[in-house]
Every structure is written in C-alpha cells, then in structure tokens.
Write a structure and sequence with these properties.
152 residues; mainly alpha; globular
Length: 152
C-alpha cells in the first residue's frame, strides 16, 4: 500500500487527484490483489479508519491511539496516512504529529515523510528542516539517481 501511495503521490498526472483519492486507490488495489490473504484485511481496516479520523475534531494523539502504536506495519502505515491526510499541506505539523505518540514514532515519522515528500517534493520542505541535515549531499544525490531510474 505504501509503495502505491508514494508512487501515485509522486507521479500524479491529474492534479485534481487528492492524497485521499490516492490512499483510497491503494486500499482498493490491496483488496483486489490480496483478497485471498486475510492478513491484509487489518491493513485495509486501519487505513480506512485513518481516512475517517483525519476528518474529525479530536486531537492527533487521541486519533493516533485509535490506530495503534505503530509497532507493526499496518499500524505504522495507518498512523502515517492519518498524519499525512490530516496535515496534508503542513510539512511541519504532519511529521510532528507522527512522532509525538507513545509508539514506534521514528517509523511513523519516516513513513509520513515518505508520503508527503512524494506529494510535495523537496522544495516544499521548510528551510529550517534542511539546514543541518546530516549527509545532505548523499541523500540528495541518491534521490536524484532514484528519480532518474524511475523515468526510464
């Protein structure tokens, strides 16, 4: 599901396609591709719950608790989806929400960054988060190389 979300967010041909549309697509694709594998059902349920929670008035912490702690993949993905949808246009608030809970916060923060980074690109990240980035040139070079490979 994450691979689908990141790829579709990064390479949207239709600007009218929202992040929520992309996430819903990934859920539908997972249901189709893995219908004979019930272990994927929990990922679908949690991701659908994340979509719904992103629209309510509860605090991030209250909503994240309803998705789990992120110690297993489906919970980490659901938390990242929630944070990405809830704060889709705020590349500071989304990762902050994703890492400020009692669970596996480094994973949920990283996955949230993957989703919103693919959606918005490097330029959308506030300068304060890029200033003292460790191995910045290596990371940017790797990202450029991966982008070139995907264009082939």
């Amino acid at each position: 599901m994450l691979t689908h979300i990141v790829a579709r967010a990064a390479y949207r041909e239709d600007d009218a396609l929202t992040l929520e549309d992309v996430v819903r697509e990934s859920v539908e694709m997972t249901e189709r591709m893995f219908s004979d594998m019930p272990e994927y059902g929990r990922a679908v349920v949690l991701t659908n719950r994340a979509i719904a929670l992103a629209k309510n008035d509860l605090s991030d912490l209250e909503n994240i608790r309803q998705l789990g702690e992120g110690w297993v993949g489906e919970e980490a993905l659901a938390i990242a989806v929630y944070c990405s949808l809830r704060h889709a246009d705020d590349l500071s608030a989304a990762p902050a929400a994703a890492v400020n809970h009692d669970g596996d916060s480094d994973s949920t923060g990283a996955v949230t960054g993957n989703i919103l980074g693919a959606l918005h690109g490097y330029e959308a990240i506030e300068e304060k988060w890029k200033q003292d980035l460790e191995l910045k040139e290596v990371l940017l070079g790797t990202a450029d190389a991966l982008a070139q490979i995907s264009e082939v």
